[in-house]
Specification:
The protein is an all-alpha fold. It has one helix at 3-60. The relative contact order is 0.05. The mean pLDDT is 92.
Length: 71
């Protein structure tokens, strides 16, 4: 096998590997983007729940909790 043929095969292998890496990077980027969207929705929901809990605590007034008898 000639040196030029070996170089062509190596170049082709590298180009193939690069194409797969590019696709993998794009797939990972899409997955991360979707995860950030989900995270943002969860953060917004937690904020709303914290507000609702604060409102409920404020409207309930002071709550006295007795210790169970075994304490």
């Amino acid at each position: 096998m000639t040196d030029i043929k070996k170089l062509e095969e190596r170049l082709e292998a590298l180009e193939t590997q690069l194409a797969y890496q590019d696709q993998t990077i794009e797939d990972l980027n899409n997955a991360i983007t979707e995860q950030w969207k989900v995270l943002d929705r969860y953060k917004a929901k937690i904020s709303r729940l914290e507000e609702e809990l604060g409102e409920l605590e404020a409207s309930a007034g002071p709550v006295h909790v007795d210790k169970p008898p075994h304490y």
